[in-house]
Amino acid sequence: MPQFFEVHPDNPQPRLLKQAVALLEKGEVLAVPTDSSYALVCHLDDKAAADKLRRIRGVDDKHHLTLLCRDLSELANYAKVDNQQFRLIKSATPGPYTFILEASKEVPRRLSHPSRKTIGLRVPEHKVLQALLALHSGPLLATTLIAPGDTEPLNDAQEIRERYKKQIAAVIDAGACTREPTTVVDLTGEQPELIREGRGALAALGL
Fold first, then answer.
1. What does pTM read for this prediction?
2. Rounded to an integer, what distance in angstroms lies between the CA atom of residue 173 and that of residue 153?
3. Looking at residue 114, what is its pLDDT?
4. What is the DSSP string of 18-56?
């Protein structure tokens, strides 16, 4: 059965989050709350963990995984961002938006889209996730926690723990999340392209 870290939504206990970080550093996959829905996360540089993340989610290497970053400066380390793209991202960050961008050399090639060399990036607003990212000292590889065959993300920590009891190492419970995934916008073309409308309002992006 996965470990269960019950944390305060506004002031999460560092002791519990440090235990979660230790699991990530061992190559484990965790379920964590975000400002859109629950997500599966693992260490960016662990190939076995990334492969496991995809298996649990039921997606192949053409499915865009996302890097969860602490702030815009960290995001810019992992993507090639011009001034126009930066201004648009800044207008909606932090928040429930995922931006498809050209991956920088800091992103392992196996994690970017195999033909487009792109990656999803976002800066979440969730206090617990921000605290976890701060302790982890780097971005986390993530995907929305939607079970294979389902259309909506899971949002109940106890249900996630029971449903994935043999697949993940831990669940961080900070209360129920929304069931809306992020709004996804592709910024690699001449104009921003809406890929998925989710919790993030389009008005903030001028779309």
1. 0.93
2. 15
3. 77
4. HHHHHHHHTT--EEE--SSS-EEEEETT-HHHHHHHHHH
